[in-house]
Amino acid sequence: MFFEFGIKDFIDILLVAFLLYYTYKLMKASGSINVFTGILVFILIWLVVSQVLEMKLLGSIFDKLVSVGVLALIILFQDEIRRFLLTLGSHQHASALVRFFTGNKKEKLEHDDIMPVVMACISMGKQKVGALIVVEHNLPLDDVVRTGEIINADINQRLIENIFFKNSPLHDGAMVISKKRIKAAGCILPVSHNLDIPKELGLRHRAAMGISQVSDAHAIIVSEETGGISVAYKGQFYLRLNAEELESLLTKES
User: Which residues cross the membrane (predicted)?
Assistant: First the structure.
């Protein structure tokens, strides 16, 4: 007996496929791909046992495990779920909708706001001074700001270089730039545990990747070993940037 297959069924399958693909990307980025594969295998076995073979006793055991497993998965993957919701909320259309209802206007970083940051990074790169600068966009980084020292100053090249000077007490943490101002320095960022990050990249790069995975911010890294400038954005690295490339990347989605 043939079953009816309509446009609603096609959309249903397409949405499920998209959800699985997006979940796969999140798990891969967080290094939890093996757990994700194990869950898929378990679901497949559960469907075969309960629906195809119709084993009542084993099927009921699997049903109980699934009902309890949902809560366990929420606890186990709370960071990934939070990242998914943050990514959903940071989408261009979602952000525009929020700004429409709240009445808040998006403050776009202009060329004059970005250039002091770019020039400071180029200067620190030549001197091999390590730095980590986070440029906030739509998603607020108040939790990160609270971990550091509040500065609330205009964006200034010399100030940035002085903060990251090797003898400065704030040089080891991250600087947060928010609403066209240097909001705080010495901030602590979440460290990414992604196993795909090259081993030659240090803790600053992992911290930059961590904040880029849970927000829509640009995280700029100046390597203390090589002087190279990199940016982490939406879970992706942009390495060995020059001044023009750095400026273009920072103004692209800001």
Answer: 6-24, 31-49
